[in-house]
Amino acid sequence: MRRINPAVLYPLFLVIVLVLVTIFTYKEEAKQYPPFAMDSPSPTGTKAIVTYLQENLDAKIDEELPSEGNNLNQIRVLIDPALFSKIEVEEAYLDFIESGNTLVVLKENPDELFDIQSEYSFQTLTVVGEAEETTVFADNEPFQATIFSNFRITPSPDDTVLVEDESGDAIAIERNIGDGKLIVSTEPGWITNHFILSSNHLELFQEIAPLDEDGEWVLDSLSADHVSASIPIYEVYHGWVYIIIFCGAVLTLLFLWYQGKRFGPVHVRREDIVRYSNERIKAISIWHVKGKHYKEAIDKQLDYLKEIIRARFGVPLHHSWQDRLQHIQKFLTIKNIDELSHQISELEQKDAVNKQEFLAWSKWLDEIREEVEQK
Amino acid sequence: MKRFRRLLDRLLFRDRGIIPTKKLLYLFLALSGALFLISFLFFSWILLGLAIVAVLGLTLFDLFYSPNRKDLEVHRDVPDELERFETELITITLENKSIFPCYVRIEDDLPQSFQASYPTRFLLQPGKGELEYSVKPSVRGKYHPNKIYIRYHSQLGLWEKQITMPYEQEIKVIPNLSETKRYLESAQSFLLHEGIKTRRLKSGQGEFANIRNYVVGDDPRKINWRQSAKLQEVMTNNDEPEHGKYVTILIDCGRLMGAELKSGNRLERTIEAAITLAACALDNGDHVSVVAFAKDIEMTIPAGKGLDHLNTILRGIYDLEVQASESNYAMAFQHAQRIQTRRSMMILFTDVYSLTHESHSFYFLKQLRRKHLVLLTGIEDELLHRTIEQEPTTIYRAMQKSTAQEQYLAFNRMKLVWSRQGITLIESKEDKLAVSTISHYIDALNRGLIG
Lengths: 375, 451
Fold this sequence. Notes:
- The structure holds two protein chains of two kinds.
- Chain A is of the alpha/beta class.
- Chain A contains twelve helices and eleven strands.
- Chain A has helices at about 5-25, 45-55, 85-100, 200-210, 220-225, 225-230, 240-260, 280-290, 295-315, 320-325, 335-350, 355-375; strands spanning about 60, 75-80, 100-105, 115-120, 135-140, 140-145, 150-155, 160-165, 170-175, 180-185, 215-220.
- Chain B is built from 14 helices and 19 strands.
- Chain B has helices at about 1-10, 20-40, 45-60, 180-185, 185-190, 225-230, 265-285, 310-315, 330-340, 350-355, 360-370, 380-390, 395-420, 435-445, and strands spanning about 15-20, 70-75, 80-85, 90-95, 100-110, 120-125, 125-135, 140-145, 145-155, 160-165, 170-175, 205-215, 235-240, 245-250, 285-295, 295-305, 345-350, 375-380, 425-430.
- Chain B has a six-stranded mixed beta sheet, with helices on both faces. A five-stranded antiparallel beta sheet of chain B has the order 1-10-9-5-6.
- Chains A and B meet through helix 7, helix 8, helix 9 and helix 12 of A and strand 1, helix 2, helix 3, strand 9 and helix 12 of B.
- Chain B: It holds the Pfam family DUF58.
- Chain B: Keywords: Membrane, Transmembrane, Transmembrane helix.
């Protein structure tokens, strides 16, 4: 029998152990529900009120848009709907209202929804953390409530304010559109499983929703269901966009593969090994600049100039600059020799030269050097 | 672990593998275009996925129509010696044992200095095929390429296969001998620009070489009357300096010899000049020995005679390399004295600037000079001259300029001091090194300085 290689066996063993440990330590996690979900028994869900409405008012859950233009005498409740991404959807709801039905919308920030305007309320901006219980007014009667939303509705003149806060900003309004009416509240939080029975939330919901009116109660799950409300990412754009993205990705991959695969040896860059003969000069000159040895450097340049004038015109080194420059006067563009030689002599006498002087003198001396060497 | 390393190697884009070709990229681009147009009429994710997978999957069948990796064999033929800056052909013989022809391209495991130009598309039929590529090595030395990289694809050419064949070989790149050849062909024309005759006559010196026609200016005392009478033309005896002198060539391989020149570095140029000088001396019938040194003695070739000895020298010094350390001149001089006990002409190829910086080398040179004729030769530092002349636009450039000028003056001063002590120091342009060294050698020979 063939011996099994321990190098193969060991990782296999490791994998089995890991699988077993995972199986035995697996624990079912709490099911996650989105907030305000109608079937959610969690504190953030709305199963309590939904069940109440279903059992007592024969409310039904509708997963489709309201059918167009019929006065069905319906009262439709939208709990925290997503913003309508298509105009047709909003128009369908508007038609629904105009033909004599009632729509109840509960949303923390209903701005732009059915032309409702809302604004940020700075008064609720008190302490970060748990919202506190405050007093709100419906029909001038005080109610205790916890306000969760940071937005208040800006009512238009024709609107009836159903609930307002202490400073008189609208929390819920009623608006007549066509034959029907639209009721909007910024507090869906009042009807969650956790808060429906605390404070006076249930009473407030009764104030807002026309529970005493006759009509067919419908809970709109199409707009409330967040998952089905948003369009999946693979349907957002037109087909050609996906073609460009996917074919582009594959093409890029192929191109990188085609370009990137190494063929041939790894070369050492030539720059890594090449040396230049002026390394020493560069190093020394940096050291001189750091030490500000400008005077010494000027002296060297003068020495060099003396030397090349000696080599070309035979003017001995011990001669003065006056003699030297007069000797080569006809080759120089500077005509004021006396002035120049005087300045050079002064420069030689100086103890120190600053940076600007050094650079300027270097340029002048270089011009003279060029003129001398060209002859 | 070994398997893992091999996998890693492949992932790191080395060795074996398959690669899409440009043709495949174009094909896929065309497919994308078609899908793009269709998408305006009809779009489905399934169609998109299927189209991509099907097209890529189908193209992979192309791999079956080119030879298997095991069906290829390879063999490399290289000339024994490659010369620097000479173009040579290297032949790769490929054997295809499968029934599929394929297009092959190769890369050899050679450094960049070889400037290889490979054929891009070589059709290899079943059987044997020879593929040639040219190289022009620019750095001398001993090389050990141990792989041949091969890519090949079928005649359809959608996917390419890559294999790496181990194939170890030694390749020698020797110095460029064109200067030496030119010298050996015609010494006189080689030295034309230096204005020195290879054999300047000095009456009463040297030994008889041949008889030639008398020309105006020759010493009338040298006229060979017997031959003149015989040939009815004035003939004269031609002398040349004695043979059998000793020449010792010292080559510095220290740090500063690595400085870059227009073509190659200082050491490359120096070695070529040294070989030409050796050829010249051997041609004259002199004995030549060579010492290469840096921190230690790198290599010694004892004195030998005749042009055959040139081969020994060439084989000895072709793979000298620049060392990272400073040169130890004292040791080199002592070593040269030890191997060369007779009076000889010692020619030291070095960086003359750094040599003059060391005062103790001067002391050793003075000792050496008592017995030998010493010539120090080096390549002119062109960068130094350029730095001297550079425009002082910034503070650093101005400072570099004055530092360079100072160094130049110091060097000239030292040169003067040394030449007063009888130590000749010459520096020449990089392409004139051999010529100027040889003319100094011949001059010394003509004047009978090498005892």
